[in-house]
Protein 1
Amino acid sequence: MATARAMSVRRRMGAMVSIGALTLVAVHFGDGLTRWSHAHVGWRLGVLALIGIGVVLAVGAFHLPQRLLRRGWACFPILYLVLVSTWVLARSSGDDEPSVWVLEPAAVGFAAVSWAWRTAVGYALIAAALLPLSLFLVDGSVDRQILLRAIIHLGNVAFVVILFAIDTQLRALRGSEREVERNAALAAAARSRAGAHARLTALIHDDVLTALTLAMRTKVVPESVATQAGRALAVLRGAVAPTHGRPGHLHADLGALARDHGLQFVAPLETTRMVLPDQAADALVAACAQAIDNSLRHARPVAGATTVRRRLRLTVEPGRVAVTVEDDGSGFDPDDVAPDRLGLRDSVLARMRAVPGGDARVRSEPGHGAVVELSWVGPVAGHPGPGTGGAAGGANPGPHAGSRISGLATPAARVVLVLVWTTGAVQSALLWHTYPQPAAIGVALLVSLAGALALSTPTDDPLPWRATVVAAAVAPVNALLFLPQLGGAPGERAWLLQTGAYLAALLMVRGRTWAGLASVGATAAAVAVWGGWVGAPAATVSAVLALPVAATAVGLAWSALLRRMLARLTAHRRADAASARALAAEETALARTAAELLTIAQVAGPPLRRVVDLAATDPPRALTAADRMECRIAEAHVRDRLRAPALARTRVAAAVDAARRRGVDVLLLDDRAGGSEPADRAGPADPDHRADRAGLLEDGFTLALAELVDAQEAGSVTVRLLPVGRAVFATVLRSGPGGDERAELDRLGREAHARRDSMASSEST
């Protein structure tokens, strides 16, 4: 399993927090060097160690052992608390606040990754209060700026809620992966079983019908017939063991077929190393054998030729294998093949089309030879080039579509964002007297609250556009309201400007990357204009932009990670639905095939077992006339179930068996296969077509049909169910000493038309 697929949820979360920590270090590194240049050397070494841990965790997020990562995640918040609490002792006279304070969001994030959510929330509160508390214990007072900043730091508890919400969604992602894997495994197993039964169904023609036909035409059972009967019994018991895929398996089996039947075998060298799934390889070999047998039986030399040249060709290309049986014999018109001829229809065409990715085509004209092409599309091991696997085509929705992976669409996230806004409102209230126009600050606070509420709209990601516009407008609107009141020294009053940048960064996390970038870009442009207007130093402008830039970088990084995760999640949802549908369809097909095989075994098993038992006696005993009759009845019944299963499953079957025992030849045909309309084409008032499509036969029809068959004492009876849409549901042609009689029945068994003819050839349906 790939590394990314096996990656734990905690590792993903740690990677997100590590990237955020690295971004904070990069943005604030220069300012931090200035602030800590006079601090105690031991404290500075501790800060370097903290930064080193963050860098190692970010660089090794996807490669280091999980145990080592967990220790690093737990060490970071603990070392951060030690540094913040000891800063009051290690500071120099020029330090106004610890440079490490900017890493508190990362420390809170690592706490959320390492510990339970209650512990992480408690840590966030302690981390925000620790600096003013330590200052109060050492100095007996707390600087006003530190106190105001500490109030803002209380908002870091939002990271805990958001991270745990994302954690919940990521665990759902992992659960979805496991469910997809489980469904895929079940679907593959069902496919394998369904494929095996499909092969067995084709083998009914190759083995069961052949054995019964040979048995009903002989008295003393030769060894070859007994062997054929034993193989047929093994088929009905499902005892045909599939071969395992191995290099050159298909090449070797096809080569053996060509040698045994005198065909020229053409195959490129690379096919000797090719490995195909068992189901595909076995189907290709079995269908090829039947195609060769058909050619040997039916292809005759054309005028001017004395022999028929036959060739077996194996070709392979990226993602596709083709096996072609060619002859230059008399050819035929594929459309003229009678529907009761099962060799081409079932053992070649249907056998290949029953395999996922399999197909078969026949090209032939009278007098121009015949070409049977068998193909399978899928990944071919041992041959370069891509297979055809992968997600189904079609439009791929946005990676955030249909999810809440950002963690911001929950009631808890909304409550926390409002609490964070409250801390800013308290700070603004404490600084109210410092603003030239307090009313504008009040408007900015309301705008910020509206943005927080819009950002936490409880809908799937991406955020709806109306809420996106509201959240994106917070940063530029606040800049217009706030910057004119700053003068040249924003100080701690810059919170309202920074909160808009935070909301823009979270917009990116909710799937609206361009809206978030546009919001931050508009804010940066406003700050640049403000700096030029008031003549603020470049350092002041950079300080105002530092946190918005950091928030934007973190938002971009988190958004990229979430996009990758969501792309997989949506793909897994589609794959899960497809697997579930395929699993249900294959299980249904498997159940039907198993039931059909069981029924055929009940009919064909006893006479086949009788053949084997008689051949095993010493000396071998001959088949009686009754034994041969049972073989004939069983052979005909099996053919009925393949050619007209709807008729073979009704009370008509008993009448047909009785007629055959009287010497009547009965042929059942169903022309409705492939001719039914889609289920939505017939309305509720169209019961006739509904019955046709469902394959159900009315009791009145089966009763009338059984009576017609029972009335035939000699000759033959041909029953044909006509294609859907015909005015007549079925025709019954009875041929006897007195001539032919043709009856046309409707769906309820009522006779629509009847006539007597003197020749059986009048049957024209």
Protein 2
Amino acid sequence: MHSLHKSLKKCTIQRSFITYVFMIALLLSAFPLTAFGTTFSNLEIPGYEGGIQDPRIYREMVFITGEPVLLEGDIAISDRAGRVTYNYRNMTNREGTVTMTRNVTLERDVTENGNDQKTETFRLTRFRETITAEGATYQSDERSNQWSQSTVFHAKPAATYFAGNWDGRKYYTINGNEGRVIVETRGSRVGYDQHWSTIDTQTLVHYIDYETGTGNDQVRWQGTAQVQVSHNRTISPHFELNIPTQISFRGAYRLTEQEENVLKYAYDLPRFNGNGGATNQRNLGTGSFTLDTNPTNQMQHIPEMRDINGHYAEEAIRFLASTGAFPTSTTTFGPDLPISRAEFARALTVSLGYVNEATVPERRSSFQRADRQESLFTDVGQDHPYRTYIETAYTKGLMAGVDVDLYIPLGTEPRPESTNVRFYPDATITRAEAMTILIKALGFEHLAPIQQYGTGYLDDTAIPLWARNAAYLSRELGLVRDVSGYFQPQREMTKADTAILLDDFIDYLRTQLRYDYRERVLNY
């Protein structure tokens, strides 16, 4: 090892050793995660009582009258300095027989745990709600209302995941002193936030205890209702083929962003006789409805490469290039050439929505460069064309560098005053390395079996130990197109391979991950 140390200083590193160091960096680095997806910039979510909205209208189900009632109206949400307010206005059913007003104020406390976790806890500070239905007025305020919600967020390079729950107990008076309704609520939420899709799925179960009147005029019943809501924002790519043939380009990709909001409900309520009394029979039912926003479209760049026509990866390459993941201005792409670490860093960071071509720093004169921030890596200069992508890949926890002098993968412990931290931007990347990066980006390493297991590939014994979890999970999650049955861990990734891999990865983020958080929960 001492001789290797000397050879490293002389920059005569063997590729096998470079690969070894890269893998240590990938597998052991405690990546700095700098951002939480706790606010959904394009997705304003009604988070107090299970309801859904679009820019025009808000809808919610209420059950305290003994019947399922759909209310529609307006909601205004304000989030300032840790105080969140919800104002529900003009809420009524279609017949106009039931109305509701509600004002809610919540205080948010945030606790951070390291770089990648934080907890948000909400407490109720103000509450006013009035429901009128068929001559009865139901009222509740913060003095008779208990409510709390807490959510933990876990930030990973490709997405921030979260899960939480809440408990509530509302006490309503009926016409002042003629009766009361107690509604106890148990709720849970789960979701994620990432570039291609954001989802927040909530499940609320209400336990209703109704009592009014005395003696022979007393009416008492119990019921339950479950409400599930899912708020989803998705970006979908579409290729638009031009009908005219006399045009400079045959077509272009557009990205369509749309919000989909789904509400499902089920109830177990009493049936009432002609005098308004509850019978022994039950009123059981289910229902659902949706609210979708108008989609927004954004046309993408037109790639100019000519050497991909008819290539098996042409569609994936053109799509990735249209987003800026690959250069769009070059006419010679070289799809079957190996991809470098620098090129992979660009393709990956752009695919995850972190940077685009507009963020790359322009070349400046020497007297201007003195004021620019020092590069993180000794082999990635200030004017390196991929510097922005490389440093973004590092700061977002996607790829790591290596402290060559100390054999310490960058990020495993506090960085010393080293002058020889390298990224090796021109080195190629193997299939095992690429899959390990993607699985770590998702934060799914722990999903692999703990005991000894087979990856399912015919060359299972050739897969190195550090890549086995990634190989197994990439197959289980459908992140790879397995046609040969071989993983080929040491095969160098080509640009075409990378395009297909990232195209499938984006599809996973858009659709398959969403399915697990929405359809699987709502249809469980």
Protein 3
Amino acid sequence: MIASEALLADEYDDFELDAPFVLDDDIPVVLTASRLKQPRAEVPASVTVIEAAQIAAWGVRTLPELMRFVPGMSMGHGDDENNASIAYHASNPNIMRRLQVLVDGRSVFKAGIASVVWDDIPVAMEDILRIEVTRGPNAATYGANSFLGVINIVTKHPGDTLGTRVRYRSGNNGVDDGFVSYSGERHQNSYRVTAQIRADDGFDGRNATGGDDEYRDSRRHGFVSAYFNRPVDSSTQLSLQASLKQGNTDIRRESYELDAPDQETRQGYLWTRVRKEFSTAHSSHLQAYWQTDSRKQRSSACLPTISLDPELFSLYQDNPQWSNSVLGITSLIGTTDGDNLVGGIAAGLVTPDQVEALLLANQGLALEITQEQLDSARNIYTRGFNGTDFSQLTDMVCGDTERDLREDRYDIEWQDTMQWSDTLRTVSGVSFRRDQVDSQTYFNGQVHNDTYRLFANAEWRMTSYLLLNAGGMYEVEDTNDNAFSPRVALNWLLAPQHSIRLVYSEAVRSPDLLEQEPEYSIRVSNLSDNYLNLDDGRIYVNQTADSRDLKHEKITSTELGYYGKFSDLNLELDVKVYQDKLTQLISDHIALNSLSVESDTKMNINGAEMQLQWQADSHNWFWLTAAYIDADVTLGDTSELTEKQRRSLSVVELRQTAKDNLVVSWHHQGDSWSLTASHFWLDAYNDTNRYRRYEINTRKTWSLGHYNPWAGFFLQHLIDDDSLAYADQRYSTRDLYYFQVGLDF
């Protein structure tokens, strides 16, 4: 192994094993795949485990950067919300919505607008014990949205971080990070308080040179978290966690906005778990948490007064292309053709057929317009008549916009783990979750979705060399159909630490509330004087729930894998080949002006992955991952889309896919210093890009009595000049670096 297995946090004692499942200290174990602690050779999935020692050795600042060391995973970045995204195999980089991310069993996946916002996760890298990444569908264990995989972040127990830790990091690209943490014990209680702030300037933009930054995508986020643990009695453990966080993220400005609608965010959560051990063969836990996420996003805007006409708003729901034309025609006012067309519609002198013919001849638009829809345009234009002409229809009005959003989650779960015999053990449970969202912009008020879950997984040792894992989860939701997600895996144990596994699994991703039940519109308040005499209004482009009838995204995955630990070489190897069939995908961009959102895209993904960890000697270890991904997308009904929209949709699911992926890392540990060098190679990334870079992280430690200061330097060199996913996502220098200092006492 690269690093010896650390003691697992107390809150995961549900998974403690007794004879005949007792593990030797040298056998790597996994917690996440089935909610049972299992030797790696017996796990019913392909799993990557990243330990605290590796996190420190690599020296990365953020969780998305850390995920680049996982085979088949790639890091991207949204083009509009300024959020890093992690994709496993293939996905749209704008919204990361097909991976489940857990922190100590608490889901940080946002259900209102499906995504994982990595900046909003209040976990310091220094507090992480291990990260387990289940590479493949795992809805059988963690439910809908554990679609392509699960990232489980397990934090350190306060008893493992006693004392004070201080860190500071500074570098180019605006990197400015601080961290302080104190852990203590009193009687039988242990606790930790951590505070962190992290800031950087993001990308520089496509035209910046020499370290300049012309692209507004910087961020600054900070949090304070607390962790408390105590034994209630000899068989019961109580754990509590809480956090408060706030941050600022730059968001690019839309054409009608006068200033940038930067996001001001506030998050918090309360989490508790009580674990009861009834006997050496039976334990349970009860877990509950509440988390809240508040986002304020406001700006000033100027736009055509006609775009706030309430009748144009209603017309958009009935015929969006015609309502776009009603507004577009006003740009021709002042010309003979424009004045004649607007005047003819306002006077009722033209028929729908005549308007359709004019639009087809002059703009190439093939529309179908009813007399009622033409009458709506007549009313809209008439309101802009000033007694002489229609020039008021080109007037502009200014006001304030907001895209505020508050999401709350209430979750309670009971889990029971039972060892029935020497050959059979199970884990089962039930849970209830309410996701509640309040936003005038996205939902015109408050909406919620309740989810009820029943899950079970059984591990049956059929013979001394055959192990069967079978399980599933049944879910009932308010806003989506009921779903059952099964998984069956057979592990053939060639030796205690060598196995061949065959895994079949199914999973779903539930359409989020914005996808399924939107009432989405941009409100403009405190309006300047306008011919409509409005003090506030809504931009005519809008989305309603009547326009949606989406189904669960579905995936069927088959995997053949091998795991082996060669103890004499201190080497671990995991290899797999797989076939994933994805159907009913929602590939359309979920935007205000999306004319159609369907769940009818299909994707087939075939490939192979390998990960190798080798502890060459007491001073050197190596990490090697490789992946080959062959993904093919089949679009659904595109009859209502333009050719440009079809081309864009055909590549959106592959924008964050690298056909070939290779990561190599070497770490050397000296007596009081260390050096880690890593190389990343992604070919055919974003279809044509090649993305290569290397990183070097070095650290020197001193010992001064009870004080242990250290200093480090991190360098990232970009070999290729290609952007990440979009044209502006590039740096104006090939070398990104930062200095780090720390003190432990």
Protein 4
Amino acid sequence: MAMWQRTQKVLWLGRDFIGARPLAWTLRAGHWFAFASLPKGLHKAGLASPAPDALAHAIKLRQSFFRGSDSGFAEIAYLPAGHSLRFGVEDRAPWIHRAYRPDERDVGTWSGTQDAAASKLRTLLDEAVRRRMPANMPVACHLSGGLDSSAITALAAKAARQCGARVTALSMTTVKPIGPAQLDERPLIAALLKQYPDVDHRVVHDALHIPGQDEDSDWPGGVIGGHDDQMMALAANAGADRVLSGVGGDEGATYNGANLYAALFRNGDVKVLTRELRSRARTDGKSLRATLYNRLLKPLLAGSLLLSRGRSRSPMDGMSGILRFVKPALRREILDRSMPPILQRNSPSERVTAFADHHIPSRCTYFSIMAARHGLAVTFPMLDRKVVDFMLSLPLHQFVRDGYSRQPFRQAMLGIIPDEVRLAQVKVGLFDERFIGYAQLKEKLLVSLEMLRASIDGQATIFDLDAIAAGLHLLPDAAQLDDVLHLGRAALANDTPPWLPLMAVESLIAASRLSRIR
């Protein structure tokens, strides 16, 4: 929404809560304030430079999404979802306001039973999906096999039956099973589709992101012809005008937090903790002693000398993580601009921040841009304000039951999604196939790196090309491909963290991108 108040000479811009439509702006002091739905409306019109914001690209590399208003362009900002902007002709900078932010004082205040919470959540999610269903038109849904997308697809299918509409489920999978069976999401997708045989299913396959590929001019790193682009095209071809996505579930409806058993201990919920640790041991098929150590003692002692065993292996570590691929002199500045860690202690502040001030607005913007290329909008039932407010109101002990986390959602979805999906404990993965693809391209990737190193832009890059080279060399050699086919990421040499060689490739792509943008 844009509104010009003629008498006050003030411009107002507004963007919806979930960011179904993007909105970008630029300010050239003393000359103009300009806005457009997409960044290319500004940089291709000469109202803003297309020059990249290199540090924002490094942040996106580390955290998957840009932070807040960052667009990847140095002179262009996004108005985040759920915000309004005011700019008058006498103003030096715009005033930006968020209309809706959950109140931390309301977090954890629900006093009902777990059964009542499950019943209410089921009703709220059903209503959230129905409100976003088009009238007598096809609708598309993301379907990964996880809890969030499976629930949205199932609820959409149930609602569509009542009005005779069609639902198309969009999945991205590997071409064939690779690695441990528990990492293959296809059996979970198949189970959901068996329960809802009237859902049309369309599949695209994971595609390698390589240096020099055409990228979206509105979202640096968004691959034209990539899996998200292909899924949006399939939705449009099915006659849909919108895609329902499960974004926001991890932070709310299917909340898993971090180290919930340790949080229960800190909160003094000893009765619940004792019961759930025993149940969790049975669910995991582990001894109570092992469960106590892994689920309680280890998180409580994290960071202490008792568990300190050399260098951190976390990709988020400021030195040995993904930022190892950035020149050391820039790491501190990148960390200062990055999104703060969230959901470490499950505090009210963290739980609110996860919705309001972290990666969700940028993630919604990404999908809105991918959809806009095909005349679609994306909508997010898990981010319905009633769902968000209710999930934030639940105290931590509501999130564990009968040896399972992600409650009361699992209980709420009883009979809605298959038990194979509803009770799955392992987060499915897609990336084992990428080790094979990149291993096959290893020599070409190293040649691309050396070409970048020899260029003027490569010499000036913010990336540490030696660190990228070391990461690329960790990719399996051609002689190891049979092992990778059988074992997946477990075939990596020297107990290499799986993210490390893949992020070396992504860093090479980012460095190549920044060297080509003018």
